[in-house]
Design brief:
Order of helices and strands: HEEHEEEH
Strand order of the largest sheet: 2-1-5-4-3
Number of strands: 5
Shape: globular
Number of helices: 3
């Protein structure tokens, strides 16, 4: 079995305390290129829905003429979960984002953001 850089990135993300599911998403198509998780969360639906969130924020930045700004991450806070979206900015990975769903009672949000940033730095597409 061939283990890719993406497989390693997804497995690493799932080691983050409280991780419920993770996906690498192409926000041009809305398709998940890879998913991992066991929480019953449909990561393909989450990928498509969060694609709209990313697209909307990018349009808003453009309308505000904030071309020099980039999105580090987008946090959606639910009563029992955190949903963290991190658009990738490394060369070759533009147009993609990492999506991580966390159990709010078990997760350390600051640590999860740091680890997602580290995963982005190690991920090559």
């Amino acid at each position: 079995m061939l283990v890719t850089n993406l497989d390693i990135a997804l497995k690493t993300a799932m080691t983050i305390e409280g991780a419920m599911g993770v996906a690498l998403v192409d926000y041009h198509s809305g398709m998940a290129l890879g998913t991992m998780g066991n929480s019953g969360l449909d990561l393909n639906i989450a990928a498509a829905g969060n694609t709209e969130v990313v697209r909307s924020k990018l349009r808003t930045l453009e309308m505000l003429d904030l071309h020099h700004e980039t999105i580090e991450d987008i946090l959606i806070t639910l009563t029992g979960q955190y949903h963290l979206i991190r658009p990738l900015t490394n060369k070759g990975s533009e147009g993609h984002f990492l999506y991580l769903a966390l159990d709010r009672n078990r997760a350390n949000l600051a640590l999860a953001r740091l680890k997602l940033r580290q995963i982005e730095d190690s991920l090559t597409l």
